[in-house]
Amino acid sequence: MSLQSMTGFARHLRTFPGVQISWEIKSVNGKGLDVRFRLPQGFEAIDQKARALFGQHFKRGNFQAALTVDKTEGASARTVVNRPLLEELASIAGRLREEFNLAPSTPEGLMALRGVLEVPQDIVTPEDQSKLDDLALAVLEETLVRLEQDRRAEGSALGEILSRQVSAVEALVERAKRDPSRSLEAIKGRFSAQVALLLDAAPALDEARLHMEAAFLATKADIQEELDRLEMHVASARLLLADGNGAGRKLDFLTQEFNREANTLCSKANAASITTIGLDLKAVVDQLREQIQNLE
């Protein structure tokens, strides 16, 4: 599976005997799958099946789908006469002519009255509408394939950005692991100096107890567990990016874990260099999370 962006656009048109059917679909970010249709009158019945088609192709996103159905020039333009209405109007015209001594009404005049002539393609039988519904759904399926291709193309480009950002997180973790402040000599020197200051300030303090407390504080300040978890998260992120199947939500949760470890790193840091790395890490994680919001 490949990554898929939640933003995309597709327009597709098909011409059939007597009718032209087209769909236009726009897709943007969304927490779930939300589809809003704009359908011509008479096509309301396809709503449920159309939604099912979206569910077969996509997991997340807000979609706006517009259907257009136009009769082509080859469609029959034969008209029919509404005889009951014509007879009623002719009868009324005859009575008015006798009562008010009016000129006789002409066939052209009566035929020009609203409702006397009807265009048959405006009157669709249930069988014809069912066929049109099937054609509209078939064109929708083709349009969804095109939209999926568009979203995957954008998802591929997005995946490259995310991979670089994950690599940036990994590089910062490596910097923290190699930071001179984490060497054994640096830790010994730092706490020896702190113990010496305390003994100078209060000579009565027990030196052995101070060394024990210093060792305890050194253990609490150690960031190895955070670095190990960050490395695990980097590996998980790469697996999700490689799989691509609905990875957006899982990666969003993973960035929360990245951010939690970065915060802990900053709070436990006992050197300015580690604090700087922690802040840089938080900035990269924020960028990572912002991009992931576009991923299905």
From TrEMBL:
Keywords: Endonuclease, Hydrolase, Nuclease. InterPro entries: YicC-like_C, YicC-like_N, YicC/YloC-like. It comes from the Bacteria. Residues 3-159 form the Endoribonuclease YicC-like N-terminal domain. Its cofactor is a divalent metal cation. Pfam families: YicC-like_C, YicC-like_N. PANTHER family: UPF0701 PROTEIN YICC. This is Uncharacterized protein (TIGR00255 family). It comes from Phyllobacterium ifriqiyense.
